[in-house]
Amino acid sequence: MVSRNRSQVKDHLGSKVLNHPELRNTKATEYMSHEEKYRYNLSRATAMLKLIDEEGMDVNEISKVMSHTVSGFTTPDGNPLAVHQVMFVPTLMNQADDDQVSRWLGDVFNGTIVGTYAQTELSHGTFVRGLRTTATYDPASRTFDLHTPDVSAAKWWPGGLGTTANHAVVMAQLYTDGQPRGIHPFMVAIRDRETHRPLPGITVGEIGPKLGQNTLNNGYLLFDHVKVPRENMLMRNARVNEDGSYTKPSHQKASYGTMVFTRVAIALDTVDALQIAATIAARYSIVRRQGEPRDDGQEPQIIDYQTQQLKVLPHIAACYVLRASTARLWEHHTHVTSEVRGGDTALLPELHATACCLKALVTQDCSEAIEALRLSCGGHGYMTASRLPALYAYATAGATYEGENTVLLLQTARYLVKQAGGSHAPPAAGSAVTYLSRPADDTPFAVGSPAAYVAAVGRVARGRVTEVAAALQADRQTMPEADAWNQSLVQLVAAALAHGRYFVVREFAEVVSQQSSSRAIQQMLQLLFSVYLAHAVSRAEGDFITYGGLTPSDIRLNRRHLLRLLAELRPHMIPLTDAFDLPDRLINSTLGAWDGDVYRRMFEQASHSPLNTDEVPASFHQAMLRSKL
Ligand SMILES: CCCCCCCC/C=C\CCC/C=C/C(=O)SCCNC(=O)CCNC(=O)[C@H](O)C(C)(C)COP(=O)(O)OP(=O)(O)OC[C@H]1O[C@@H](n2cnc3c(N)ncnc32)[C@H](O)[C@@H]1OP(=O)(O)O
Ligand SMILES: Cc1cc2nc3c(=O)[nH]c(=O)nc-3n(C[C@H](O)[C@H](O)[C@H](O)COP(=O)(O)OP(=O)(O)OC[C@H]3O[C@@H](n4cnc5c(N)ncnc54)[C@H](O)[C@@H]3O)c2cc1C
């Protein structure tokens, strides 16, 4: 396939998927059993994998087209092959050495090997160094002994592990030469390739129902002294030689690379879910009329209530702003990864800090926004058929997996306070933290000036970071490091979020300034940016007074300004969401179809309820009449 940009790839694959003989016909899955849902989603995930293979896409393109826009259609209840595609394959590509890649990748691509990424254990997810699965090297047999010391060390959560995968990249504590060497990745066969039965020494199964994404097929896995050949430790970074001697990786956290990639992918992808939710809420808010009739005799469209505009419109602006910054992060990740492969790890610390912060900011903002959009649809937004509950379940999972958000923000904060205190290597050219070592931008605040807002967002970030860095430094003089750190946790998280917000708005300011194709588009981007900025100030007024240089009068002016901007944006709401270019079948919502025929669709979906099949369901006689007796 020729190289295409993200949106072209999405469109291309989107139409292929919608017309694919095995994918085009969908079934409602709400009334299926857990097992039926899994079978339905798995067979569609497999068809999708074949399609990707036929298209000859490389790993980068595959992950781009794994977007929620497409995968929400192919696998509405969660893709049991997602972790195979998004984590297992990239881990092999980036952490296996060339020999290992050539040994395994053929079987991965012909579908013989289906894998997962098995890191989290029942008792440890966040604190990766605390994982307790061991891999002990024996030079005599040239094998590793993989072992789960007790049930609390069982792997728990990996996607596709339940009943789908036959291999896993297992993150385990390496022991060699009698020394602990930290967490390393191992390629482990867990099921027979032919029979799919668990291999000797392996206990594996599915963990049970969740808030959503129930066919991600999350599983558990225990090892009882399972022997794995030496060649199965992924050896691009660290190595264990035949005699058991150990070669360190070029970067201490090189084996965490898959997590960085997946955080970047999740940040990018959660915006897709927000776009779908925003489109549904926008369309419904036009169709829905309720309230005292106006002069024209019609009840008002709910979008004309100021409160409704506040519930819906800022999130449309957020779609545009967050899409730009996450796409930029994606490009930056590609660049840094190629540098790291070439042996230069200088940019890794900041990439890690930025990926942590954006993954957390985007998943938090998007899940809050999707919940607000669901509420904006009143009772009907609570129905599964609106799709809003599933979109929320998807976005909020992103706040936990691939690093719980608070924990990730603390990683960013750690980097920021080091930068503010000068105890880290100075930032490279183009770094996102140079503002910390420069005087604050003193552009005076003025309602209506995006540049003045961006400067204020920067002052908040700078103020938050420098203040908490100083508090931490002072506490360090009087108490142990861990206590000093704990004393500042809440402020550290706030500082990292403020930094993330500054990153996001600077990226979008650049997008707006570089847009030159049309004056109308430039004006629309400016309006969206103004809405985003005014809304950001209204969400954190205290911060903007404390650190941003705004006065209480500026705050009052901003509140009025935001409402005026919303009224200005309102007529453009539908074109702005139509521009996401989401076909009805990909949106899959009774409330969000393009023609606005909401009420007919709601009745139509109710007709699928099995309780409506008979006028009087058998359960009435079985449960209710009997209980009367
Ligand atoms: C567009 C494509 C569509 C994609 C669709 C996506 C959706 C797919 C659907 C489902 C998939 C879901 C799959 C979910 C998978 C998972 O959840 S896998 C498990 C993920 N687990 C975690 O993320 C655990 C979080 N914890 C950690 O990462 C770490 O424990 C830690 C919090 C970072 C701490 O690590 P550790 O204790 O080892 O760290 P310290 O020894 O304290 O050292 C800290 C120093 O190390 C630096 N560091 C840490 N991590 C990295 C890194 N990754 N890269 C570079 N550097 C790193 C850190 O900055 C410190 O440096 P310093 O000492 O100089 O300050
Ligand atoms: C849907 C889903 C899919 C998943 N898929 C996979 C997968 O494919 N592979 C895999 O290996 N794992 C997977 N996971 C596991 C996931 O990565 C972990 O659940 C996640 O990293 C959070 O870790 P935890 O569960 O240990 O949370 P905990 O760390 O126990 O979090 C609980 C609370 O403790 C707080 N906390 C913990 N440590 C600190 C700290 N140092 N400072 C301050 N607060 C702290 C957190 O902020 C949080 O409020 C998945 C999880 C989910 C929900």
UniProtKB/TrEMBL annotation:
The active site is at E402. InterPro entries: ACOX_C_alpha1, Acyl-CoA_ox_N, Acyl-CoA_Oxase/DH_mid-dom_sf, Acyl-CoA_oxidase, Acyl-CoA_oxidase_C, AcylCo_DH-like_C, AcylCoA_DH/ox_N_sf, AcylCoA_DH/oxidase_NM_dom_sf. One of its GO terms (biological process) is fatty acid beta-oxidation using acyl-CoA oxidase. Its cofactor is FAD. Its main location: other. Residues 450-624 form the Acyl-CoA oxidase C-terminal domain. Residues 8-113 form the Acyl-coenzyme A oxidase N-terminal domain. SUPFAM superfamilies: Acyl-CoA dehydrogenase C-terminal domain-like (SSF47203), Acyl-CoA dehydrogenase NM domain-like (SSF56645). Belongs to the acyl-CoA oxidase family. This is Acyl-coenzyme A oxidase. It comes from Amphibalanus amphitrite.
